[in-house]
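Quick one, probably user error.
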């Protein structure tokens, strides 16, 4: 996996950069952005990192995440290089209005294609954007410090299900081993990711599991779970507490696709889909205006909950029958 030469030249020659990633960030978005920012700072660059929703509590343990800001001056971008990490269009960052920048860069691994970016490095086969950033830093000759290594390790671990998903390759494990040699403590990372939940987050999971429905959508066995705004209020949680919840129902042996429908307004829902094997949920997400990967994709839709369930099950059945 080799970064484009024009990207390497740009990062070496330019001085001012703003890195941005998607709303509702998870480990890959955060780890990739922070690792790249630390590296550019070590090269003497002026770097800012913007994530609209900030850093979810469960990722506060990651080194240097305090550099992430949840506000952005669009005026300041006029003189800066704008780098999108782990997404491929500005609206995924929550930036809705038109803005100017010196030059734009996309570094992403989602297979849903967009046209944004003067320089685009998109690797749909890469298991995580963090793996791409690893190769980018190696090509730039930047030392991978313990802080950089930990951010990259979390990025890769989260998007491979801590090396359980089908996208875990020998290459991924070799890179993870090198990151451990550079100072990562796998046990410490695992404890922070999976054994440091707040009681309120656990209570939210309990409520979500009580909503589970199992459907035979043609040849496809689907599990649907729901999180409403009322459930957030009752448990004192928010969207950041739902990270990885969409994977829970996929643990069931007979489930091919798990879907989490999370309410984001009176009639607005965010769907997070996870699948096993060759079932490509990105194709379903694309029908609803979303995107993602073969085994992990999502979209945002408006309507009643029952209508959305019906439309989604119909599309899953159509894809499973082909």
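Nope, works fine. Designed sequence:
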């Amino acid at each position: 996996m080799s970064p484009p030469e024009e990207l390497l030249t740009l990062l070496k020659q330019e001085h001012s950069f703003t890195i941005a990633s998607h709303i509702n960030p998870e480990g890959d978005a955060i780890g990739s952005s922070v690792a790249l920012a630390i590296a550019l700072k070590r090269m003497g660059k002026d770097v800012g990192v913007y994530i609209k929703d900030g850093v979810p509590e469960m990722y506060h343990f990651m080194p240097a995440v305090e550099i992430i800001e949840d506000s952005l001056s669009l005026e300041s971008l006029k003189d800066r290089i704008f780098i999108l990490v782990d997404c491929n269009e500005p609206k995924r960052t929550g930036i809705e209005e038109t803005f100017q920048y010196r030059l734009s860069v996309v570094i992403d691994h989602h297979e849903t294609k967009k046209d944004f970016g003067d320089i685009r490095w998109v690797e749909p086969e890469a298991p995580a954007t963090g793996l791409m950033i690893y190769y980018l830093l190696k090509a730039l000759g930047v030392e991978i410090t313990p802080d950089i290594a930990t951010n990259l390790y979390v990025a890769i671990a989260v998007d491979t299900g801590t090396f359980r998903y089908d996208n875990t390759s020998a290459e991924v494990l070799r890179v993870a081993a090198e990151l451990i040699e550079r100072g990562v403590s796998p046990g410490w990372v695992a404890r922070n990711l999976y054994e440091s939940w707040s009681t309120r987050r656990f209570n939210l999971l309990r409520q979500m599991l009580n909503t589970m429905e199992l459907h035979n959508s043609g040849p496809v066995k689907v599990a649907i779970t729901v999180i409403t705004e009322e459930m957030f209020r009752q448990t004192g949680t928010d969207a950041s507490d739902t990270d990885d919840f969409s994977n829970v129902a996929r643990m069931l042996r007979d489930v091919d696709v798990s879907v989490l429908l999370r309410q984001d307004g009176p009639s607005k829902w965010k769907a997070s889909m996870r699948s096993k094997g060759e079932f490509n949920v990105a194709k379903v997400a694309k029908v609803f205006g979303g995107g993602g990967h073969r085994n992990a994709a999502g979209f945002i839709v408006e309507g009643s909950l029952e209508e959305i369930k019906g439309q989604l099950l119909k599309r899953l059945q159509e894809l499973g029958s082909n």
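The first helix runs from residue 5 to 13.
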